[in-house]
Write a structure and sequence with these properties.
The chain is globular. It is built from 18 helices and twelve strands. It has three domains: 126 residues, no CATH class; 98 residues, Rossmann fold (3-Layer(aba) Sandwich); 167 residues, no CATH class. Helix 4 packs across helix 5, helix 5 runs antiparallel to helix 6 and helix 10 crosses helix 11. It is an alpha/beta fold and 489 residues long. The strands form four sheets. Strands 3-4-2-1-5-6 form a six-stranded mixed beta sheet, sandwiched between helices. Helix content is 50%, strand content 12%.
């Protein structure tokens, strides 16, 4: 997952200072701060669950004495213990989706244990409503608190563990730039080593090539992670380095560019190393789970959105007479034509206004051809149009498409045909192979700031690495992105 550009620049500037800089050291107190924040978030989840059940006691009366829940408040402390066992403290090297998956699994298992304890041992002392509401808060608040904490730690240059990269060629350059662009993962390149003398004292994505690979021993005690990003070195050389380097974590980057990177497991094939790649979107049970989730969440979301849609539709008609809703033709699953519903955010003669604006403004035409969006779009309605586009609430009517089975809650966005024509045929074929989504990885990563290349990279990553955990993560992150309005115009 990507972070915002300002954060990435802070991170890159920090790591470029080199291994000797104090900012490059791993802060061992970070894991204790993360633990304390989780304890706070989980206890707050129990408190909010208790309060919410108390509000409902007006209709469903049940004894809610505070003294009944001290035991549960202590039991909640077992959940951070589960997080610790799953290596979430500090969690360096784990993607955001993997962190979310581990958190959800630990929280689910331990709350299930609380419910069993309540039924079998203390004979229903605790309110099932308190347990249920606390569980839902516990799924949302700790990840949210950790997201905020991680952002603060990145900005004050206290997040991450130093990483030594062996290999300064194309693979090493790609790896370093990727790690610098995604500081959330917590792997901070501090030096690059390469046996090619021509590369010494040069830089790879801003990180200095400090010398040959034999210099690796100078980083013992300073670095825990070493990444071998030199697939062209040959099997013997890679095996030699992996065997003799005295570091706790050694990661070998194979020559498999373009292959999915999530949900890949190492397999011991009687002494031979194999990589098992799970094509999750080809498994029938996963597609069924995805469709069930779409219905279970899509139907209530649609019902809850009806009053909001009615208010917004009335506002649109006041600002600009004409229909508040409209349909657009998009490319759907397996290339079928898809008619999506949207709230109108533009004047009825929007295309005419756009043509005149692009004709008179070459800079705007260049911006349009790169992003297919304009920061200052003459077609957009004042106030209501800008609000809808900033918050993406104009997409709410597509919940009807989700309920009808034409779209999924999460997937590649169904772009207009003129937009799709800018992509390669191979990429368009890949997009058609999955259900288009109401939100997607692009929406929570770049939104309007992402050009065609970024859109292609993010959609490809999602399709290749899909899992139900990624969908849940994207849905949760979408709420935050919509509330903040990041990257939209």
């Amino acid at each position: 997952m990507k972070t915002d550009g300002a954060t990435s620049r802070v991170f890159a500037a920090d790591t470029a200072a080199g291994a000797g800089a104090s900012a490059s050291r791993e802060r061992h107190w970070v894991k204790w701060v993360k633990l304390a924040v989780d304890v706070l978030a989980l206890e707050l989840s129990l408190y909010l669950g208790y309060l919410l059940r108390g509000v409902l006691s007006r209709w469903w009366p049940v004894p809610l004495g505070v003294d009944l829940y001290w035991g549960l408040a202590l039991g909640i402390l077992l959940i951070p213990g589960g997080y610790w066992l799953l290596r979430l403290y500090p969690g360096y090297g784990l993607t955001a989706v993997e962190k979310y998956r581990r958190r959800m699994r630990a929280t689910l298992v331990l709350f299930f244990a609380f419910m069993v304890w309540d039924q079998l041992v203390i004979k229903g002392t605790w309110s099932r409503g308190v347990l249920l509401f606390s569980f839902f808060f516990a799924l949302a608040l700790p990840p949210l608190f950790q997201e905020v904490l991680r952002g603060v730690l990145i900005r004050v240059r206290c997040w991450g563990t130093p990483v030594l990269v062996l290999g300064g060629a194309a693979t090493g350059d790609l790896l370093v730039s990727s790690l610098l662009a995604d500081p959330d993962i917590g792997l901070r390149p501090v030096a690059v080593l390469d046996d090619d003398p021509a590369k010494w004292k040069t830089d790879v994505s801003g990180i200095e090539v400090a010398g040959p690979t034999s210099f690796a021993w100078e980083y013992v005690g300073q670095v825990k992670y070493v990444i071998l990003a030199m697939p062209g070195a040959g099997r013997e050389r890679l095996v030699e380095l992996a065997g003799m380097l005295p570091f706790p974590h050694i990661v070998i980057v194979p020559d498999l560019l373009g292959v999915q990177s999530l949900w890949v497991e190492a397999r011991d094939l009687n002494g031979t190393l194999g990589l098992e790649i799970k094509k999750n979107l080809l498994l029938r049970r996963n597609l069924l789970v995805k469709r069930v989730v779409d219905y279970l969440l899509g139907v209530p979301f649609l019902l809850l959105s009806l009053p909001v849609l009615a208010f917004l539709a009335a506002w649109i008609k006041i600002v600009s007479p004409g229909p508040a809703f409209f349909q657009q033709d998009r490319e759907g699953h397996m290339g079928k034509n898809l008619k999506i519903w949207k709230l109108r955010t533009m004047y009825p003669n929007g295309e005419e206004l756009l043509d005149r604006h692009l004709e008179a403004n070459p800079a705007a035409r260049e911006e349009w051809e790169k992003h297919f969006k304009l920061v200052h779009d003459p077609r957009v309605l004042p106030w209501v149009g800008k609000l809808l586009r900033k918050t993406s609430l104009d997409e709410l009517p597509q919940l009807w498409n989700v309920v009808r089975g034409e779209m999924s809650l999460v997937g590649p966005r169904p772009f207009p045909y003129y937009h799709l024509e800018k992509f390669d045929p191979e990429f368009r074929a890949m997009r058609r192979s999955v259900m288009p989504g109401l939100t997607g990885l692009w929406q929570i990563s770049s939104r309007s700031d992402g050009d065609l290349r970024i859109q292609e990279n993010l959609d490809t990553y999602y399709i290749r690495n899909w899992s139900v955990w990624m969908d849940f993560y994207i849905l949760c992150k979408t709420v935050w992105i919509v509330l903040t309005g990041k990257g939209a115009y």
